[in-house]
Structure formats: C-alpha cells, structure tokens
C-alpha cells in the first residue's frame, strides 16, 4: 500500500515537472530557478577570528551559523519544499558572508523569518544575522544593526495582466492592495495613500495567491520581489509603473555587535570587488529580468 502511494507520488511529481518544463507559451520567459551551475564558490577563510563579536563567538562555539531568511521570494530567498535547500540572491549573500566569517556552506542553518518578526529574532538571539530583502532605515536601526547595503530596490505594484487602471500608487484609491505586515511598503501605503484598502498577510506569496484569486487588486512591495513573482507567471501578472521609494537592502545583525557589522561590510566590499557579487546576482535575481546594477555604497556608520 505504502509502496503504491510512493509510486503515485513520484509519478505525480514527474508529471508536474514535465508540465513545468514543456508548457511555457511560445515567447514567454522560461520558468527557472536559480542557475546553480553558474553560482560562484566562496573561499572559506578558515583561520578567521572575530573575538570582539559576541555573535561570532557564540556561532563559533556552536559550530555553525543560524541565518534568518525568506523562503517564498522567487530568485531572492526560496526554499525547495522537497529538499529543504534555500536558494536565491539573498541566500548567496548569506553564504558569501558565512565564508568570510570562516563557515563553509554546510555550516549554515537557514531559518525562515517573516518580515514582521525580524527585529525580535535578532534581539532574542534566535539568528546570528538576517538576509531577506531587509530595508535599512533609521527606525529599525534603533533596534538592530545593518551591514551593507548590498542592493537598492524600490517599491512597486504587481497586478493581474488584465488590469488596466492601476499604473501607480495614486490609482489605488478604493482598490484593495496587499502587502506583508511589518514591511516598509505596507507602512508607506498606510501613511501616504489612505484611500487604498490595505490588507496585510505574513508573506507576499499569500498576497500573490489572493491576487490570482481576485481577492485583492494589487500586491505592493519591492520591485525586486514583484519581478520574481511576475517572471514565474508572466501570463497572469505584471509589474506596473515606476518604483516609488528607495529600499536599500542590508544584512540585519544584533544591535551593538559593531565588530560583526563591520566584518560583514568588509566581506561585502571584498565580494563586490572580486566579481562574486555580480556573478551571484546574474545566476539568481538577474533571471527575473533585472540586469546586474552597480551595488550601492556601503555605509559604515559609527556605533549608535
Ligand atoms: N524591503 C521591505 C522591508 O524590509 C519589503 C520587503 C520585506 O518585507 O522583506 O520591509
């Protein structure tokens, strides 16, 4: 009995894979995950020591890093449900950082943390650092630290392809728009576009499900995230208008661990210089149609 069930599951899986591979409409972009064959390998700095960082000391003693991430953001942070393996641009940034801190890729344990729970996870020591479309801003800097930024995104809008009336946030009056609780895009709509009917969920993938089932008229968050969803279902969804904010992505660290923050800044800079950043971008986020930009300048702000 068990055996037949397994065979049925395998056949169903094969069928799904065949459908995914063969059913793209002619001319539509291929639906692909990150190009693992094109990812850089990061040199692990085995002799690395950072005694001034309490976070690093704890991870070193433990023998592995615990890194917070997203698991449902295409090309940025995705978890394969079958293997449990994480992939995407943010995940590559996390691996790059780990290598510089002396940890090989298999010495990282990723933990999915939703937007609204990032600060608490860092404050409680549940994670050593966080890489997941995390905008650096002054409010958050009162609670956590940020290395980077390593990428500049901007807020945008995702709608169904048959939508012709939404071109920017000003068109959201009386329409329903979905975003993630605790995110900067959610806060911006609430503050600047009060006529929009704003709904919040834990994740953007739930918002996208709601868009596809006509529960909401638009999804708003960073363009980098929305372009990934649109690239996976180009017949169903499109990104409209121009970005209407600046969302610099930083690596969240426990506040006060300046040694860790500056070590990550150094590691980012080194990887931007040696080409790993660009190579990682092109094998991940670049696949949603964004050409590799120049990374934004790193902000080594004084201890606050
Ligand atoms: N970058 C924005 C933020 O940090 C939106 C993306 C997210 O929720 O992770 O709030």
Taking the alpha carbons of the first and last residues, their distance comes to: 62 Å
Spatial strand order of the main sheet: 10-9-11-8-12
Q: Give the structural class.
A: alpha/beta
Ligands in the structure?
A: glutamic acid
Whole-number mean pLDDT = 91
How would you classify the quaternary structure? single chain
Q: Extract low-pLDDT stretches.
A: 1-31
Number of helices: 10
Shape: globular
Task: Describe the main β-sheet briefly.
Answer: 5 strands, mixed
The value of Rg in angstroms is: 20 Å
Could you estimate the helical fraction of the residues in percent?
25-40%
Approximately what portion of the residues adopt beta-strand conformation? 15-25%
What is the succession of H and E elements?
HHEEEEHEHEHEEEHEHEHEEHH
Strands, count: 13
Architecture overview:
- There is one protein chain.
- By secondary structure, the protein is an alpha/beta fold.
- It has ten helices and 13 strands.
- Strands 10-9-11-8-12 form a five-stranded mixed sheet, sandwiched between helices. It has a three-stranded parallel sheet with strand order 5-1-6.
- Helix 3 packs across helix 9 (258-273) and helix 3 (89-100) packs antiparallel against helix 10 (276-283).
- The N and C termini lie far apart (62 Å).
- Residues 1-31 have low confidence and may be disordered.
- The protein binds glutamic acid (GLU).
